[in-house]
Amino acid sequence: MKNIRNFSIIAHIDHGKSTLADRLLEITSTVTKEKMTPQYLDQLELERERGITIKLAPVTMRYKIQDPKSEFQNGSTHSLSRVSSRDKSQNQNPHDKNKFELRTLDFEIEDLGFILNLIDTPGHVDFSYEVSRSLAAVEGAILLVDATKGVEAQTLSNFILAKDQNLKIIPAINKIDLPNIQIEEVEKQLINSLGFGKDEIFRVSAKTGQGVRELLAGLIERIPGPVRDEKKPLRALVFDSFYDQFKGVVAYVRVFDGKVKEAAKIKFLGTGQESEVVSVGYFSPELKEKDSLTAGEIGWIATGLKEVSKVRVGDTLSLSGEEVEPLTGYKESKPMVFAGLFPVERSDFKLLKDSLEKLKLNDASLSYEMDSSPALGFGVRAGFLGMLHMEIVQERLEREFGLELIISSPTVRYKIGKTSGEELVVSNPSKLPKQTEIKEIMEPWVKGSIISTKDFTGSVLELVNSRKAKVNNIEYFGEKSKISCELPLSEIVSDFYDKLKTVSSGFASFDYELADFRPIDAVKLEILVAKEPVDALSQIIPKEKAFRVGKALVQKLKEAIPRQQFEVSLQAAINGKIIAAERIPAFRKDVTAKLYGGDRTRKDKLLQKQKKGKKRMKRVGKVDIPQEAFLSVLKI
Ligand code: GTP
């Protein structure tokens, strides 16, 4: 079959992408009705549980137009309807494959069979990196908008992503089966804010299937087929990958030029890694083998490689010995939130390292480096795209790799000028030299730009100013505004991005790059639990904040740390001087004491519950400190 359409579905979270994908899988008989479960492409356990898409998911569907005339006609509110008059006048036999032609089509359908490659994408802003990779592999996108909600933040930002890639975008209003919806209102938004024509917009119910066949016909008609030159030297874009025990690293690819098949010698241009292809195939959505992958197709290549880091997402793959220009990949993702990840069991560090390496292959936006802390042992300092991403990574590490982890507060790197003339870089507060040896502490600053809409510029500015920012410029482009500013990295590492989304109702986007190091009047705020300093709770912070934060922290810790068999003192100190203190009174921990009589099962249950409650505790000295305590630093 030579007709191929490569497309994605993009939308704000919960607008119904995965449900629409379900209908497409059904209509194309890719998945039988019996096998179909809602949100079929969300295969990760976490995705199913939370009802959200985290990973992009490709699938190849085969679709044969049975009755072209009626299928293209049904979209009567769309441009497709224009087809009908001409068809009628020509009295064309709809089954006459070779002669069938639509007025709005820029191609002739010689063969009514189509290969439709869909890449389902996540909607949450933290995962827009997945979206941008999906979009680099396709020619078009369905922009799905919930009829009850209208255009929302991610609708807009995904729209911009797709536009930047020059994709053909097909707008569709979803959930038209619901009562009390204002389709015209949503239609107006699509026309006025995104510039679509009224007759371009489809109306569907991904739930009931209403209008979905018409949408399918519409995408076949409007999304251009890929340019397919099998004679050119191979060039394929790696847009995702995972590790398989038997196949080695499996790369998800979009082939742009040429052809690749089993036993071919291939080379990854970015890493220089070479290997021999074990097998190739397509997504059904399970992996299915086929003879070859050719220009225009989306599929997978099993590389046999054991080292996951050699296959980089965004890299270009070619045949060994052929000289080709690499395809344009995607911008590297930028971490927005940083935190330390430490195994509860110190001996699990190697497992953590191995697991992260595997997870990184599946989640290209994850970045990390080794870290160590006297209180928490060996761990990593990781960068995430947002708070949700951080939560998901932690959960995946725990579920898929059986780890138990503590997340600690994020810090940045400081440059310390010593009185001796020496200069050192410190990210862990415990490594800070004595106050008397410090001449100067410098902190990293970033240059940032925030794009939002006019309406939100005021509240965004307020947020930025509360973070010690220097605003350099405010520009307006139509409805949009761009604030250029400089601010300390420490002000953005934890909740800045989430706050920005809140104050702008999700409309603002943020980009930054490291600028330079600037002096800061900072001190080490030390936290002592039962007289033991706990470095994971300590931090380097501006002097003017130290008293307030120290006080708030010991109060928070008092709530978060459970009573122990003995009294526990909590202290905040600066240069050895206690600035705030609290105490947790002793507690006899016989939880079953109140259970008289011999109800064994109840007693067991209670003990079980207590055991569970102990999870994610880290013993520091004699005290068990729960995860919440480490996170409380993040929240102050
Ligand atoms: P993410 O992948 O997390 O971004 O969400 P999504 O866009 O894939 O949305 P999903 O398909 O998971 O749908 C979200 C919710 O809307 C689910 O409860 C669906 O059952 C429901 N839904 C989707 N389409 C329709 C529709 O056409 N009508 C109605 N009534 N409900 C729908």
Task: Spell out the key features of this protein.
single chain; 636 residues; alpha+beta; 8-stranded antiparallel β-sheet; 6-stranded mixed β-sheet; 15 helices; 25% helix; binds guanosine-5'-triphosphate
Structural write-up:
It is built from 15 helices and 33 strands. α13 (543-560) packs antiparallel against α15. Residues 73-110 have low confidence and may be disordered. The chain starts with a strand and ends with a helix. It is an alpha+beta fold. Guanosine-5'-triphosphate is lined by residues 11, 13-19, 39, 51-53, 122-123, 174-175, 177-178, 205-207.
- Characterize the biggest β-sheet: 8 strands, antiparallel
Rounded to an integer in angstroms, the radius of gyration calculated over CA atoms is: 28 Å
By DSSP (H or I, 4+ residues per run), the number of helices equals 15
- Please mark out the parts with pLDDT under 50 across 5 or more consecutive residues, or reply none: 73-110
Helix content: 25-40%
| Oligomer kind | single chain
Q: How many beta-strand segments?
A: 33
Structural class designation = alpha+beta
Strand line-up in the sheet with most strands = 11-10-16-7-8-15-12-13
Give the ligands present.
guanosine-5'-triphosphate
Q: What is the arithmetic mean of pLDDT?
A: 81
- Form type: globular
User: What proportion of the residues form beta strands (DSSP E)?
Assistant: 25-35%
Euclidean distance between termini CA atoms:
60 Å
